[in-house]
Amino acid sequence: MRPGTPWPEVECVEYSVGFRDDVRVEFDAASVSLATPASTFAVRLPAGGTRDALAALAGGLVPLGETLDGFEPAERERFQRLLARLGRLVEFGVAVGGRELIRLQQTGQDTDPATTVVGPDDVVRLSRFALCRSRSGTLVLESPLASARALLVHRTARTLVYSLAAGRRVGDLAEQDGGDLALPEVCALLGVLVGAGLVECRSAGEEFETEENSTLRQWDFHDLLFHSRIRSGRHDAPLGGTFPHRGEIAPRPAVKAVPDGPSIELYRPALEEITGRDPGLTAALEGRRSFRSYGEQPLTAEQIGEFLYRVGRVRTRFVPAPDDEPGGEIVSRPYPTGGSSFELELYLTVQRCDGIDPGIYYYDPVAHRLVLVNDAHQDRRAMLEVASVSTAREADPDLLITMTSRFQRLSWKYSGMAYATTLRHTGVLYQTMYLVATAMGLAPCGLGIGNSDMSARVLGLDYLQESSVGDFILGSRPPGDPGIWDREQGWEWVNDPEWAAWAGAKLRRA
Ligand SMILES: Cc1cc2nc3c(=O)[nH]c(=O)nc-3n(C[C@H](O)[C@H](O)[C@H](O)COP(=O)(O)O)c2cc1C
Hints:
By secondary structure, the chain is α+β, with helices and mostly antiparallel strands. The protein folds into two domains: 2-229, no CATH class; 263-509, 3-Layer(aba) Sandwich (NADH Oxidase), CATH 3.40.109. 31% of the residues lie in helices and 26% in strands. The strands form eight sheets. A seven-stranded antiparallel beta sheet has the order 6-2-7-8-13-12-11. A seven-stranded antiparallel beta sheet has the order 17-24-23-21-25-28-27, sandwiched between helices. α11 (281-287) crosses α17 (497-509). The radius of gyration is 30 Å and the shape is elongated. Residues 1-8 have low confidence and may be disordered. The structure holds flavin mononucleotide. Flavin mononucleotide (FMN) binds next to β27.
């Protein structure tokens, strides 16, 4: 195995090149304009060989070798530079033994695919991060570690990939498993796939990089794929506020239709009352802690009403002009969200509250009331059990707040990053809850593990339309200091211990 030969110059492989299917090419006297569904790109191109070659690419794949051979050296270099700049707009057919086996489409923005020289004694395997899926009617191989996507256009390529679930000696793959590639052809095709980062290769007796490299070992398959897809740079899919479903599917409303059920009007705090006793932002930030034990007195209905009003109520509504922002009405709540989507909903599993019966409720953020959605004892227990397990059974909370996301409210507008955005909103809401709970002298704790499937059933939701993305527990604050920064437990102050002491005293007085 020898790495790093820049492609496309590889022995035994012939390349062809053409524009991708979704690129519209238009020529005028001095330039060529290349448009994809996401962007338009214009190149100034006077008449000459490069312009003629580019015009040929618009008609389908053309042999790259022949095209380059027809150029003077300077023109050849110019055309190659242009191809490199076109990057994601072109695709390369890879023919081995005279048959086009795969097509390569550059996926990263700043990548330079290279082929690797693979020998018969090397061991190959599909990358631990590769995935095989159907895309526009073709089986494709992709990976967040790869510089290119491989379209498996020929059965022979599909057969080879099928053989790579476990590590195989390259020499054993020639004319094996129903494949019909001779050894030099297997080596050549694998060289392209290894160079693109889709297949892993190791010398006999060594480890694959994804098993040996401590950084890669600590990436889960789905985490790295997610990371690569929710920001620009590593992929060629649309990203951002592209409104992909506009005109075809109605947008989800800013405010969810309230479920049927008996409702409870919640206490509405008076502004003067809160400002009169509020400890202030710095005290709430500096004194904020997570609690997993609670006072003898339960939470009160008044506290739950104040908490929800300060954290999650709808404050205002606004209907933008359609040319200004499609999607209809937007609202505002006390915490921020991307595009004012406010797709998160709150459900309360009440275990112990003075003034509200145990049960599972939906929080109506407009009317500021609770609506009972489930009063089954065993469902309540099941929800609280998952929350308690998340704290290693330390907490038996008065109240569990389940945050759900109405996913399509975001994905109607955002391509590629809708789910990432809802998780960001969940974090924003966690901190808002922590700060309000701290300012109110309550005992808050965010949770990291919830059961979305079970909560969808218990809350009467369709998992794919609305399911849980976060959980938060709340109770009355236990007396005394929980002492988690206790020196005796090993905590050492790094900066300004007096800030915490000041905040603690201020919160106790509030
Ligand atoms: C997103 C998030 C998830 C959390 N998940 C859990 C959890 O599952 N169980 C738990 O006991 N605490 C959880 N916590 C609380 C953290 O353990 C706590 O914030 C951290 O130890 C720092 O302590 P402090 O909040 O008292 O400053 C979570 C906090 C956040 C923000």
